[in-house]
């Protein structure tokens, strides 16, 4: 008899893999991704959370709780500034869940919702860093040199992973 791994376990393992891939990709390709004046920031952690919104059971997986937990770890491990992503990740997950419920469940709706999620995540991160004096770029510089390239990179990641991760979630539905 073949034993099935619960989708909650797959979700948690995938969340931590995405978390570490964020840093690994940034480190390995730093010469290309962070070439002055542009910054292409991979957000695979948010991608995993948003794809769980699309394909998983949000109440069963406790997505907002896991978003806060991974946000806390993200803050401690990557930014050193506690409190920014602890609040931004759950907010973006909730926003994307709310918007996705109003749209038909398909790839284009998911693409639009992920576009919105990345925009909110990166923009709120910029606002928080500008508020404490860590970011000194103008809004136009931020939009051209950080937001647009980050959106492009992450939307490519989303397009490449949407169908395989959807198949993973569908194969574990009960």
TrEMBL record:
The record's GO CC annotations read: plasma membrane
Localization recorded for this chain is: Cell membrane
Q: Which domain of life is it from?
A: Bacteria
TM region positions: 6-25, 37-56, 76-100, 112-132, 152-169
Q: Does the keyword Ribonucleoprotein apply?
A: no
The protein's UniProt keywords, in alphabetical order, are: Cell membrane, Cell shape, Membrane, Transmembrane, Transmembrane helix
Task: Reply yes or no: does the keyword Cell cycle apply.
Answer: no
Q: How does the UniProt record describe the way this protein sits in the membrane? A: Multi-pass membrane protein
Q: What is its main location?
A: membrane
Q: InterPro entries annotated for this entry?
A: Cell_shape_determining_MreD
> By its UniProt entry, which Pfam families does this protein fall under?
MreD
User: Which Gene Ontology biological process is one annotated for this entry?
Assistant: regulation of cell shape
Give the UniProt family note: Belongs to the MreD family.
Q: What is this protein called?
A: Rod shape-determining protein MreD
Q: Which organism is it from?
A: Lentilactobacillus diolivorans DSM 14421
């Amino acid at each position: 008899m073949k034993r099935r791994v619960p989708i909650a376990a797959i979700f948690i393992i995938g969340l931590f893999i995405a978390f570490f891939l964020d840093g690994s990709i940034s480190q390995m390709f730093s010469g290309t991704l962070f070439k002055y004046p542009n910054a292409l920031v991979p957000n695979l952690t948010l991608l995993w959370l948003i794809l769980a919104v699309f394909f998983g059971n949000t109440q069963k997986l406790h997505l907002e709780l896991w978003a806060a937990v991974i946000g806390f770890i993200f803050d401690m491990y990557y930014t050193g500034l506690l409190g920014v992503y602890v609040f931004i990740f759950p907010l973006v997950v909730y926003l994307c869940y709310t918007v996705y419920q109003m749209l038909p469940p398909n790839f284009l709706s998911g693409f639009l919702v992920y576009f919105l999620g990345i925009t909110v995540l990166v923009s709120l991160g910029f606002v928080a860093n500008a508020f404490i004096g860590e970011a000194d770029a103008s809004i136009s510089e931020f939009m051209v040199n950080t937001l647009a390239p980050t959106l492009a990179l992450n939307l490519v990641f989303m397009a490449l992973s949407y169908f395989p991760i959807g198949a993973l979630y569908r194969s574990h539905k009960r």
